[in-house]
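Progress against Task 2.4 (sequence-to-structure conversion) is shown through the following example record, which the project officer requested during the mid-term review.
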Amino acid sequence: MRSQKLAAVVATVAGCFLFLSGGVASRPGIVSAQDAATPDSAPVWFREDFSTRANRWRLFDLGKAAITFEDSTLVLRANPANYALWTIPDTDLKPDRYAMKVQVKLNGGDDDARAGMIIGYRTDSDMLVLVASRQGSVYLGRHYFGIWSDVIPPTQVNLEPDQPITLEAVLDSGHGLRLFANSQPAGQTTLKDFQASRFGLYALSGQEGGIDAAFLSFTVSDSQ
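C-alpha cells generated for the chain above:
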C-alpha cells in the first residue's frame, strides 16, 4: 500500500508514520470553565520556547509533510488526509509524575485536524496523546501500531477563534490524570498501565486533509 511505503520513508527520516485514525466519538461532552492546574513555583524539568534552532528535536521535510523551525515556532505540517506526525526531544527524562503544558496554534487543516502533545511515549508504535481541534474538541487517545483509539470520550471546550490553544496534562503520583484546555477542565482518568515515559509533540491531519500546527512553547514541571 502507498501509505505503508510513505510510513516507512517517514520512519527512516524522522520516526514519524502514516496511519488512518480510528473513529471519533459522535458527540463530545461539554464542560464549564475552571482555573487549571499547577502553581507557577513548581520545579521545571524541561522547557522549550523554540526561539533557537537547537538540535534537540527531530526535524524533516518531505514536501507532503514536514517538521521545521519557522519564526520562533516548531511547525508540524502535512497535506495528506489522516496523516500523523510527531517529534521527540533529545532528552532521557522520564517523569513518573508531571504537569506538561503546550501552547499551539492551528493555522490550517479541516475541522477535525488536531494537534498537541505526547504525554507518554514508549515507542513510535505506542504513545499516549493529548490533542485539540480548532473547534474546541479535546482528545486523549492512544496511538498504537498506527491505530488511534480514544482513551476517554472527547470533551468540548470554548476556544477563541484563531488564537493559540494551551493544553495541560497533570499526572499525580497515584497516576491520576487531569486534562485542561485554556484553563478549562477537559477530562480526567486513572492510568492503570502507567509507565514512566518520554514525551513530545504531535499533529494529525483531518479526513479532508491538511494540518499546519505551530508550537509556541512546551514545558514539563513537577505536579506536586
